[in-house]
Amino acid sequence: xxxxxxxxxxxxxxxxxxxxxxxxxxxxxxxxxxxxxxxxxxxxxxxxxxxxxxxxxxxxxxxxxxxxxxxxxxxxxxxxxxxxxxxxxxxxxxxxxxxxxxxxxxxxxxxxxxxxxxxxxxxxxxxxxxxxxxxxxxxxxxxxxxxxxxxxxxxxxxxxxxxxxxxxxxxxxxxxxxxxxxxxxxxxxxxxxxxxxxxxxxxxxxxxxxxxxxxxxxxxxxx
Length: 223
What we know:
By secondary structure, this protein is mostly helical. Helix content is 66%, strand content 2%. The protein has a two-stranded antiparallel ribbon with strand order 1-2. The longest helix has 33 residues, at 78-110.
């Protein structure tokens, strides 16, 4: 069991370092590419917010796992697993939306794979995949209930509400002002919100549910 905790600890330390590196690179303004920027302005992007959230969750998990390795704790608290589930789900949404929506739509304009260049290679691809692997391989647990799936969606839902409000508050005669629908979710106009918002919320829930189920499998490997 200690070997699994040790691998989880090392994986979460690596995740936290990767997140610090990638987010710092982006915020420094030295990372070019699509959907990039500098300073606190980049916090408008879910990519940045989800990766920061995951980095914090990974660091908290690593601290708890370190305490277990030192014999100062017996098991990882359930709230830590909830944070990791929520953070992993958030960056998984980032990864899937980038691959299946942003890449096909923005790739035509900026060039395919442009969303995976510079710091976005880490934020859109490497970090999310690393988080999924860590969760699946080293953090399987029975500490969470099905209700945790709904709770885990909250950070992503909050961002969705923020995004919609930004769009609604920056319209002119029913048209969205340039620069406020930065992901292009409302490319077909404000009326598409009736379809986009429910689909996005359902998609987020399904991502959390799948990760939750993966975390419940092969319980003999858990700590």
